[in-house]
Amino acid sequence: MNRLTILYDPMCAFCCRCRDWLLGRPKYIELEFLPRGSSDATKRYPSLRTEGGSDVLVVVTDEGGVYRGSDAYIMCLYALVDYRELAIDLAHGVFRPLADRGFSWLSRNRTMLSQIVHQCKPPLGTPVDSPPSPPLPARLVEWAEIRQDNADRD
Fold first, then answer.
1. More exposed terminus of the chain, fewer Cβ within 10 Å: N or C?
2. For helices 70-78 and 84-91, angle between their N-to-C axes, nearest 10 degrees
3. Cα angle vertex 75, ends 29, 73, to 5°?
4. How does DSSP classify residue 12?
5. Residue 85 neighbours by CB under 8 Å, 6+ apart
6. 56 with 28: CB under 8 angstroms?
7. pLDDT tens track for 87-111
8. pTM to 2 decimal places
9. What does the DSSP 8-state code read for residue 68?
10. How far apart are CA 4 and CA 66, in angstroms?
11. What is the pLDDT of residues 39-79, one digit of tens each?
């Protein structure tokens, strides 16, 4: 397994913060994020349906494995260098029921958590089916062009 594709809600600030946190950690396994329900996600996974509602996290491996809910959260942690041992502990034994309850609570309460974390900004290059950003103010564009001209001269 070399890559996990994580289907997330780009309109959920909590989901975006989790995405940004995961992207900032050292990884054993490459992570790719696709907005759930986007045209790219639908094309790549036409038969994938979210069981348990839209609050359920879904992760797909490059080998075709599909993980939902607690298993998806655990797979995200398993991909990270500093959290692999925790993921293994959460996946088995006495910690599994705690993991199931905790991750289920996160999924059910992501709207409330989003109000706490406030904003959602997709990283550069992330395909998101949303309206384009408003144009930059003319003065900012002019300043950037002058800076670029000066850089070209040097």
1. C
2. 150
3. 130
4. -
5. none
6. no
7. 999 998 899 999 999 888 888 888 7
8. 0.71
9. E
10. 10
11. 898 899 887 765 445 668 899 999 999 999 999 999 999 99
